[in-house]
Amino acid sequence: MNKDELIKLLEDTIIPASCTDMTPYLQPIADALMEVMPVPLYRFRTINEYSLSAFDKDLIFFSRAKNFNDPYDSLLTSPSFEDIMKCPAESIACFMNAFRDQLLKGMEIPQNIKDLFPPSLLDQMLGFMKMQLEAEEGGEMTEPNWHEIQAKLKDMVANFANDLRDSESYACFSESITSSTMWAHYADYHKGFALSYDMKSLILSKPNGIMILPVIYSDVRYDATNLLGWATAKMLGLPMNRIDQLDKIKSALYKSSEWAYEKEWRLINSADQAHTHPSLKYAPTGIYYGSRISEINKKILHNMAIEKGLKEYEMYLDRSSSDYQMRIRPLSIE
Q1: Which residue, 40, 151, 164, 221, could crosslink 196 as a Cys pair with Cβ 3.0–4.6 Å?
Q2: Which of 162, 189, 212 is the last residue of a domain?
């Protein structure tokens, strides 16, 4: 098993909405994950009060995707209204059928639907439904005017896309500690530091709502049509089939192939949706000092590392090498 095979296994695994015991689906992924996941994984850090405090307290902080440097990160594809219409039992058809059922039964429109639409638009929709019912009884059908309804539901889908995007938080790790580009982008142009972590131990402890998976690099964005339609229908109190219970996780793993150099693994936190930057207490196994780190910052981090009993390394350039990779050596303090 290699990482590509793990990714294919994840993509091919579909957990239907009716499934109540996901273990048979998830266990093969978990087994493959333990086999494939590199140890250690690395987290690059800029030196500031925030990162020093997190290091001191052994905290890994999570961020929302909207704050990442890739504007497409975890951004769900927003299907057109026509695409939603094509899906079985999708938002519009289901929405209008619910109105019809309410009218036929002589019941009130549910409050959660009333809260979504202005009274004038509700009156218009109800009026149309009554006319349609009368036309059906008379053997005639009229074409509905969907303009206002379409606009409202399109806005709703867009809002759901944003809400779903930020419903989970992430911490990013890399397989590579020798990438000059990673040190430049995420460790203050080599003036910062990096921490190594044994994530297998974390996952084996089975923390609630925490998982780690490799990022899927692709030139095609994840199709979130069903996910968005299901979420919209759920909020409206309408029935709709969710095709795959892993859809939200999968959507959070897709990134453009342009970012493949990061070799990213993503720690996903779905347990804490209340805080902007949730945290997890988990200690690193080692620390790596950037090749341009200042002596005072190295001294501060060194003293903290000694207290924690961490292995220490420093990055350097090998001027005689034929490649562009950074080199590693154990820290030498004079």
Answers
A1: 40
A2: 162
